[in-house]
Specification:
The complex is a heterodimer.
Chain A: H1 2-39, E1 49-50, E2 53-54, H2 60-67, H3 74-105, H4 111-122, H5 130-139, H6 146-156, H7 162-169, H8 174-181, H9 186-197, H10 199-215, H11 218-223, H12 232-238, H13 244-270
Antiparallel strand pairs in A: 1-2
Helix pairs in contact in A: 1-13, 2-13, 3-6, 3-7, 3-10, 8-9, 10-13
Chain B: H1 2-12, H2 14-30, H3 32-49, H4 52-59, H5 63-67, H6 71-101, H7 118-154, H8 162-168, H9 174-200, H10 221-228, H11 232-266, H12 273-285, H13 288-298, H14 304-311, H15 325-352, H16 357-365, H17 370-398, H18 402-408, H19 425-435, H20 439-463, H21 465-468
Classes of the chains: A mainly alpha, B mainly alpha.
């Protein structure tokens, strides 16, 4: 009796859930779909569209993107961006995770002071310091150098350690203590126990510190003057207005690696390995 | 009841927060003399109890350690001393003096005089001061170390061997090893530029005074100008009010929409979670500036939305026109949500995967409704884990440069000084300092903003449960 009563209600709930999901997905998909279709439009101009959609389709803009490299060397920009983002992501994540781990697990003298200082520093509008960064990089001879960008991105990354610290705070310390009784050093505990448990958070950090250089335009615009060193962001912004479909094609293309990353890594992202570990 | 309190805590009870903050400041100053005394007690002890070998370390770093036959450590300290002196004599001292003079010879192409570049001198001066501070810290550590060895020897113990101390860097002192690199990086690439900008606020850098012209110290003149000159103050307060409203609205919208989306996709009845999550991730993957340009086009006169309106017989709407105050603001809010909800969802999903599932089972056995489970278990846990993120998102939104730069950049309106009614303070600063060369005034305004935001968020952070009870969920 009760079973029959609940069932339609449950079905209704499922239907509402799916409707909501579909609506959300539509909202997120639509502008991207529009951009993708624009990249396949035959004419390059922005104004040859009927409503949301181009009038004629072709592959021309993608072919042009990779073959017509004299003015706009997209393949080169793409490799530059890939290199800078990968290196900054690796270095930045290492630094961030180390910082977060120490702030969460160790109780040392200047800890609270450090935490407050980073919070205050993070509040400073970052681009106000651009002039200073520029002069600094001239002094270090790092203008027009990809490593200059990588240094800035990865050195700034630990400032955002709070997310990761919040995560470490929610991981039980009882495993650490057990290992310490067994004679493991803090370094060993960090590498053997904490890091595997923090895998979802590491993946999140890798992803977010990869995306930042990937889509930043202020810093590369400031520091990379040579057209061959451009990142995709700066290069695409330098495109002429009449090159709209090339712009769309270029933007579509740089979304691809992130999507691949997500597919490859989503398992880590969602199912925290600590699900099976001791809690509370 | 308790949970609703928790939910409203950070921003609603600001008055209480400020009162508590004031009390904290009071106790801080009351206990200050005692704490200073405590700090100097250690120094006094070393000065009165330290023997000749400690004194040797005071004169030449590492000498005491060498006299105690601690070779490796002694040589390391000695090398630091030599390196620092070499730097300071060859370069540091000149940089240090340059910080105060900011250059004396103006360049003159006619006579072929290569003048001083005040801005670079300023920066190098700050660098030399940082080097001095670092040296002092190492110097004090060196004396303390010598005294520690003395104490060990006096009590007939063997002083810790260098090897053992190195090993402690992976054990007891692991945090020192791990934090060294991040701290140095942050100092050079974040602190140094910030200090530079703060210092700029007290000079006349900007306008006609840019190198090769010589820059001078002007004290508090820039702050005086902001308060007395009629053109800055009205714009400042108008933009400030909108900026606060924007930061609060967009932070709450993005946070709860992201959490809601994560919970929606986390429901048991949803099949193919990975597939559905792909859509927000797609939005996340496309770089923000591309989406912003795309959105600007979408809402423009020739854009698809207006084409549809005219196609249906309406007249085109200027969504982002100069007089479109609230439509432009709402579009900005929506576009910002579109950009930021995916990352919020990712974070919430990661954190939700760590919630203790036993709690839900217990709640289900006790007959708690899904809503009650959310309010009593999920929300407190997620808020606890993400309160710091919430605050940093508030700041990020407060200083959200991209949205209105791309949607409506470069508009100057009547009643505003070099700004428009959607501009946030950060956009105004950009217009002032990058586009119009008001460097020192811009720096002074950014200090004011910085003071306001830091006081608000520090108070909220210190009073939040994630700071007060870090161990709750451990």
């Amino acid at each position: 009796m009760t079973k029959r009563k609940i069932r339609p209600q449950k079905l209704f709930g499922v239907a509402i859930t799916y409707l909501a999901i579909l609506a959300v997905c539509f909202v997120f998909l639509f502008p991207i779909l529009w951009l993708v279709l624009a990249s396949f439009s035959k004419t390059g101009s922005i104004y040859s569209f009927r409503g949301f959609f181009p009038t004629e389709y072709s592959f021309d803009s993608f072919v042009k993107l990779f073959s017509d490299t004299e003015m706009y060397n997209y393949p080169r920009w793409f490799l530059n961006t890939l290199f800078i983002s990968l290196m900054s992501s690796l270095l930045g994540t290492t630094l961030t995770i180390l910082t977060a781990y120490c702030m969460s697990r160790f109780r040392f003298k200047s800890r609270k002071a450090l935490m407050k200082t980073t919070l205050v520093l993070g509040m400073f509008p970052s681009f106000m310091t651009m002039t200073a960064v520029y002069i600094l990089m001239t002094q270090f001879n790092l203008i027009n150098q990809q490593w200059g960008l990588i240094l800035i991105y990865s050195a700034g990354a630990p400032m955002g350690y709070l997310t990761q610290k919040g995560f470490f705070d929610t991981i039980s310390v009882s495993i650490d203590e057990a290992a310490r009784i067994d004679g493991a050093s803090n370094f060993k505990i960090f590498v053997r126990i904490t890091l595997p448990l923090a895998a979802p958070m590491i993946v999140y950090t890798l992803l977010s510190s990869f995306v930042w250089p990937w889509s930043d335009f202020i810093l590369p615009k400031l520091l990379l003057k040579n057209k061959d060193l451009y990142t995709v962001a700066v290069g695409l912004m330098a495109l002429d207005n009449t090159e709209f479909s090339r712009f769309a094609a270029g933007s579509v293309f740089i979304a691809v690696p992130i999507v691949i990353f997500y597919f490859a890594l989503s398992k880590f992202l969602i199912n925290g390995l600590s699900a099976g570990a001791v809690k509370q | 009841m308790k949970d609703t309190d928790k939910k409203a805590n950070p921003f609603a009870s600001l008055g209480g927060a400020l009162r508590k903050g004031a009390a904290k400041v009071k106790t801080f100053f009351r206990t200050l003399p005692a704490r200073i005394k405590e700090k100097f007690a250690g120094a006094k002890e070393i000065l009165t109890q330290g023997n000749g070998k400690v004194a040797a370390s005071m004169c030449v770093m590492g000498l005491g350690q060498l006299l105690y036959r601690q070779w490796a450590k002694g040589i390391l300290y000695l090398l630091v001393q030599i390196a620092f002196f070499a730097y300071f004599i060859l370069k540091g001292a000149g940089d240090f003096i340059g910080f105060f003079t900011l250059g004396v010879t103006e360049s003159n192409a006619w006579y072929g005089i290569e003048g001083d570049n005040s801005v670079i001198m300023l920066l190098l001066g700050i660098l030399s001061i940082i080097a001095l501070v670092f040296y002092f810290v190492i110097y004090v550590a060196n004396i303390k170390d010598a005294y520690r060895i003395q104490c060990a020897v006096d009590t007939m113990k063997k002083p810790e061997s260098f090897k053992k101390e190195l090993a402690s860097l992976l054990g007891k002192n692991f945090h020192k090893t791990a934090l060294a690199l991040p701290i140095v990086g942050v100092c050079v690439f974040s602190v140094l530029p910030i200090v530079f900008m703060i210092v700029i606020a007290f000079t006349n850098y900007g306008g006609a005074v840019v190198p090769p012209a010589l820059v001078d110290w002007v004290g508090l003149d820039n702050f005086g100008k902001i308060l007395s000159l009629g053109q800055f103050a009205p714009t400042f307060f108008k933009i400030f009010a909108w900026n606060i409203l924007w930061a609060v609205l967009s932070t709450f919208l993005n946070y709860f929409a992201g959490l809601g989306l994560a919970l929606l996709l986390n429901r048991k009845c949803v099949k193919g979670k990975t597939f559905w999550r792909l859509f927000p991730i797609l939005a996340y993957a496309v770089p923000g500036f591309i989406t912003l340009i795309a959105f600007k086009f979408m809402f423009s006169y020739g854009g698809p939305i207006n084409q549809m309106i005219t196609g249906a017989g309406g007249t085109a709407v200027g969504f982002l026109d100069i007089d479109a105050k609230w439509t432009a603001r709402l579009i900005g809010l929506g576009v910002n949500a579109w950009l930021n909800i995916p990352s919020g969802m990712l974070l919430a999903t990661g954190i939700l995967s760590n919630v203790n599932t036993d709690l839900y089972e217990a709640a289900r056995v006790d007959g708690a409704s899904p809503w009650k489970q959310f309010v009593r278990i999920t929300l407190p846990y997620v808020l606890f884990a993400t309160m710091p993120v919430l605050i940093s998102q508030f700041i990020a939104n407060f200083n959200n440069f991209g949205i209105f730069y791309f949607l409506r950049g470069g508009l100057y309106m009547d009643g505003y000084f070099l700004a428009s009614d959607t501009d946030l303070l950060i956009n105004w600063l950009y217009n002032m300092s990058i586009d119009n060369n008001y460097y020192s005034i811009g720096a002074a305004i950014s200090i004011i903003i910085f003071a306001v935001t830091s006081v608000i968020s520090l108070t909220v952070y210190v009073l939040s449960p994630s700071y007060k009870q870090e161990e709750t969920y451990q």
